[in-house]
Amino acid sequence: MEEQLAELAAKVAELEAASGGGSVTNTMFAETFYYLTIPLMIIIHAGFLAYEMGASRLKNVLSSGVKNILAFAFMIPTFYFFGWWVYWGFPTGLPGAPGPAGISGVEYANAIAWGWGESAQYMGPNIADQASGVFFGAFALFAATTASIMSGAVIERIQTVGFIILAVVLGSFAWVVAAAWGWHADGWLVTQWGVHDFGAAGLVHAVAGFFALGVLINLGPRIGKFNADGTANHIPGHNMPLTVVGLMLIIVGFWGFLMACVIVPGEAWSWYADKATTIYGTPITLSALSFNILMSIAGGIIGAWVMTRDPFWMMSGALAGIISCASGLDIYFPALAFLIALSAGIILKPCADWLENRGIDDAVGAVTVHGTIGLYGVVMLGIWGSGYPALQGAAGEAPTISLIGQIVGAVVFFLCGFVPGYVVSLILKMAGMLRVREGAELAGMDLVKVPANGYPEWGGDAPTTPAHPAE
Amino acid sequence: MFPYAEATWDVVDGAMFMGWGGALPGMTTVIAMAACVAVLVVGQRSETAKAKRFDK
Predict the structure, then answer these.
(1) Once rounded to an integer, what is the mean pLDDT over residues A209-226?
(2) Is residue A467 domain-resident?
(3) How far is B41 from chain A (nearest CA, A)?
(4) Closest CB from B24, B35, B42 relative to A333
(5) Between the CA of residue A392 and those of A108, A170, A311, what are the distances in Å?
(6) What is the ipTM of this complex?
(7) What angle (nearest 5°) sits at the alpha carbon of residue A312, between those of residues A310 and A318?
(8) Taking Cα atoms as reference points, which of B31, B52, B50, B30 lies closest to residue B42?
(9) A419 lies in which domain range?
(10) Whether B10 contacts chain A with CB within 8 A
(11) Is A387 within 8 Å of B7 when comparing Cβ atoms?
């Protein structure tokens, strides 16, 4: 009898050890999952860097790059200083009351998102916390993406410090407010209106795109962009292949971006023990993403090819394809995603032309690709996905997706981007910190901002590099 | 468009995409295929027309 009891106890201990090992493996998997999304999203930044440097003229190529690199560099610490706190603090709106899920409100944010006092334990290395750092990293890269979206639109005439201030307002505040309201499970847009924006078509892309529009209105067009009669001139960048490859890199990085929108199972903070979910707690699989991302990329390219035959717009069409389906990548049927993306690719260039005909010089089409198509994607989900539960919960309790709800979300996302973009750029304009002086713009901003030459052997007055050092 | 009677994810244990169990998936697949073919036809015609301008 005693032997049997000892054997039983040994088996129980063995099972407990095995179960503990599984838990450690799952925790390591979860941490690694989000950790890997960070370098993938840095590829988005590499793509934006190549894209806007290629879209710049030779005289501005490095200054465009410097601006983009600085946006990244300032986004990370400012998101650490206060952006992360804003996300957790205000899902229910002002004054920051706690929401039903119990993971929001100013008190909660004070406890986990400040880099001082007791909350600092969640904002630095902590052997008992394998989640906060990787979540923060993924969100900080979302923030960097928003800044990069705006960065391309304003190339070749904006001041560096003015741009950085705008990038910080966008990346560490404006989109974070939109995410708190429309992405967080306690967000008032989600709980009251059933807004569903899984892949952030509205709360990242549209917010950034319309923030850029607000800035462009105050910044004005590049010298030479428009004629006296209002007609527009095309200002070609110096390197279309670089721009096109940059756009492809952005698409590579999008896989990390969308992967980071998934909540893995089996952790204390997961929605389910055995199912991956969206940030709203609704089920999703990486297979769903694979089907729908690939089909939407293809649809966007084909739609843009029909309309333009231009590789710049075709690759922008790929981006537009993903963005147009991003809100519902978890629940679209792949062929439907293809058709929505195809339509986005078709309307892309006409929408950009419409904006240009109103005197807006968006150098890379960012307002259209991210702003207009972002809102298009949010509304499309309202048309096709009405009736789907927008949030985890029992029947009748969870809000459902509706066209009205998605339109309300689209309007709020537009305002979250456009209003701060317009107001802050207006203040910078009045302070003389928005646009470079005319002489510097004509000479080229690299001469003013960068002590280096992008292509030192290019141009009539370029120094001749000796073939051999001895010559 | 939710393919289950109750609007809750608790009842879902399989396909969860829009139109599951109805005609939408098949219809959209056929339309997508037709769109691909139509695009190729339009593309071929316009490219041929442009190429002809360079005939001597």
Answers:
(1) 98
(2) no
(3) 11
(4) B24
(5) 21, 30, 41
(6) 0.96
(7) 100
(8) B50
(9) 21-92+103-449
(10) yes
(11) yes
Residue A364: which residues within 8 A CB-CB, separation 6 or more? A51, A52, A55, A152, A153, A155, A243
The DSSP secondary structure of A87-127, one letter per residue, reads HHH-TT-TT----TTSS-SHHHHHHHS-SSGGGGGGSS--T
B37 touches chain A (CB under 8 A): no
- Is residue A463 pLDDT above 80, yes or no? no
Would the CB atoms of A335 and B9 count as touching at under 8 Å? no
Q: Residue A455: what residue type?
A: Y
Assess if residue A9 is contained within a domain: no
How close, in Å, is residue B47 to chain A by CA atoms?
Answer: 10
- Is residue A227 in a domain? yes
* Enclosing H/E stretch for A13: helix A2-55
* Neighbour tally for B24: CB within 10 Å: 18
H or E element in which residue A210 lies: helix A207-219
CA atoms within 13 A on the CB side of A62: 14
- Say whether A302 and B39 touch across the interface (CB within 8 A): yes
Question: How many other C-beta atoms can be found within 10 angstroms of the C-beta atom of residue B22?
Answer: 11
| A4 found inside a domain | no
* CATH number reported for the structural domain that contains residue A231 in this entry: 1.10.3430.10
- Contact present, A215 and A182 (Cβ < 8 Å): no
C-alpha to C-alpha distance for A332 and A329, rounded to whole angstroms: 6
Q: Which of A221-230, A446-455, A460-469 has the highest mean pLDDT?
A: A221-230
Q: Which residue type is seen at A121? A: Q
Kindly list the residues from chain A whose CB atom is less than 8 angstroms away from the CB atom of residue B16. Answer: 283, 331
User: Which chain A residues touch B if contact means CB-CB below 8 Å?
Assistant: 281-283, 288, 299, 302, 305-306, 328, 331-333, 335-336, 338-339, 342, 384-389, 392-396, 398, 400
Q: Would residue A117 be called left, alpha or beta, if left means φ above 0 and alpha means ψ between -120 and 50 degrees?
A: left
Is the model's pLDDT at A469 over the cut of 80?
A: no
Query: Do B17 and A331 count as a contact with CB atoms less than 8 A apart?
Result: yes
Q: In angstroms, what separates the C-alpha of B56 from chain A's closest C-alpha?
A: 24
In the prediction, which pLDDT does A98 show? 96
Total domains in chain A come to 1
Structure tokens at A97: 């009351």
Please give the pLDDT value at position A393: 82
The answer, for B18 touching chain A at a CB cutoff of 8 Å, is yes
How many Cβ atoms from other residues are within 10 Å of residue A403's Cβ? 15
Smallest Cα distance from B3 to chain A, Å: 9
- Cα–Cα distances in angstroms (integers) from residue A41 to residues A35, A167, A325, in the given order: 10, 17, 19
